[in-house]
Design brief:
Neuraminidase; single chain; four-stranded antiparallel beta sheet; mainly beta; 21 strands
Length: 300
């Protein structure tokens, strides 16, 4: 049984901190997605289809969901219905489990596939759903030093080609999130340390990343405290493999949203750029799977 509740956009703006910026995020709505079944929940990665009519979401137990999105007035979500879900496959052809299962990020690929980034056994693969057998994008132990529960949280295809992956925790000495850049194809993809993402402060950790159609880099961050989860979205200029000026588009008070871990940028039928976020409920009844959406409204 699926139970949906659509909240007023005003609720989305609770705790919104504003500052001078070239753009603002206009709340479009929230939807609490509920389904039965032990595989449901724990979502950490999201890829919304152009037009917002369907999406892929991946959980930190390695389950990939494909769902249809029914929208109503003002293009707000009225219902989410799962079409299918499947356990991802590891690099040895077996269903992911335990150490190999912790999928944390999804990104669309230009060839129509999806990139998947994992922590625990830190790695990056490509799949072409509904086939969930992976193409490995590096040698087995390439990121051996990062095998932990605090490694990759974001993956994105760079505007000029190649990939960038983002680590969850800031570097203690530089106060920036470490990144890696990948170029090439398959296991021959060459990886190197990338530029640090500046401004990793305020107790936030990285939770997802994406490039917009504007060529800028968007970073989703979250912070946990006794009051709940706070959410921050920043965007950066990107040129010649380096981050430029940044702006904070959203920063909520603790508890205003939930544990927002997945982010996707897409364009609706009216040409608006929309940011969709999805929360990781950690498979706990005290949390929820929340989808929150915003329009990126540029200054006139």
């Amino acid at each position: 049984m699926r139970i949906a509740d659509l909240l007023l956009p005003a609720a989305l703006s609770a705790g919104l901190a504003t500052q001078a910026a070239a753009a603002e995020l206009v709340p479009l709505g929230q939807y609490t997605w509920r389904e039965d079944g032990s595989a449901f929940g724990g979502f950490s990665g999201l890829v919304m289809a152009p037009g917002g009519t369907s999406f892929y979401a991946v959980s930190d137990e390695g389950e990939l969901f494909h769902a249809t999105v029914l929208r109503g007035a003002a293009n707000r979500i009225e219902r989410i219905a799962t079409d299918w879900h499947s356990r991802l496959i590891d690099n040895n052809g077996k269903p992911v489990a335990g150490f190999t299962a912790d999928a944390e990020a999804l990104a669309p690929a230009r060839d129509g596939g999806l990139y998947v980034a994992y922590e625990s056994y830190a790695r990056i693969t490509e799949i072409h759903p509904p086939d969930v057998n992976p193409t490995a994008l590096h040698a087995y132990q390439r990121f051996r030093d990062l095998w932990s529960n605090e490694s990759f949280e974001g993956v994105a295809e760079r505007p000029g080609g190649g990939l960038i992956v983002v680590s969850e925790k800031p570097d203690g000495s530089e106060g920036a999130y470490p990144t890696f850049l990948g170029d090439g194809h398959g296991t021959a993809m060459a990886w190197r340390p990338g530029p640090g993402i500046p401004g990793a402060d305020g107790g936030f950790d990285a939770s997802d990343a994406a490039f917009g159609s504007d060529g800028r880099f968007y970073l989703l961050e979250r912070r946990v405290s006794l009051g709940g989860f706070a959410t921050r979205i920043r965007r950066f200029g990107w040129q010649d493999g380096a981050f430029g000026a940044s702006e904070t588009l959203l920063e909520t008070a603790s508890g205003a949203l939930d544990n927002m871990e997945g982010m996707s940028l897409w364009t609706d039928a009216a040409g608006r750029t929309v940011i969709s976020l999805i929360s990781d409920d950690n498979f706990l009844f005290l949390q929820r799977t929340l989808v929150a959406e915003y329009e990126v409204k540029e200054a006139q």
